Amino acid sequence: MTSKVAEAEMAPGDPSAYANRRTDERVAAKFAVRFEHTEDAARALRVFSINVSAGGLCLRTRKAYDVGSQVRLSMDIAGEEFHLNGIIAWVRDEEEAIGVRFTDVSDEDRARLHRVVESFKKR
């Protein structure tokens, strides 16, 4: 089994490429995530988050995804409904997990994501 990371994020031979590249704090959080594309929804009915940040989330899924694939997610996090675009940033086959980096997030949604992350920190 392998771990794959978006090649665009890693420079060959550069040890800093493996450093934490996240700008937003992650918190452990479990909630249901739905894929809005019909073909994904049919194969990923029970997908749950592992953690979330204002910049993305980690999901547990048995469906295979390619790094760089675009996805559209729908989720209810702590009473806040989100419909967000993302890109598969990494895949960990052995853990059946993927990392999704949110793209094209409005200022309003980013502020709501920050509030949600803060609410999980208080639990």
UniProtKB/TrEMBL annotation:
InterPro entries attached to this UniProt entry: PilV_Myxo-type, PilZ_domain
Short name of any one Pfam family annotated for the protein: PilZ
A GO molecular-function annotation: cyclic-di-GMP binding
Domain PilZ: 20-118
NCBIfam families: gmx_TIGR02266
Name by which UniProt lists this protein: TIGR02266 family protein
Source organism of the structure: Myxococcus llanfairpwllgwyngyllgogerychwyrndrobwllllantysiliogogogochensis
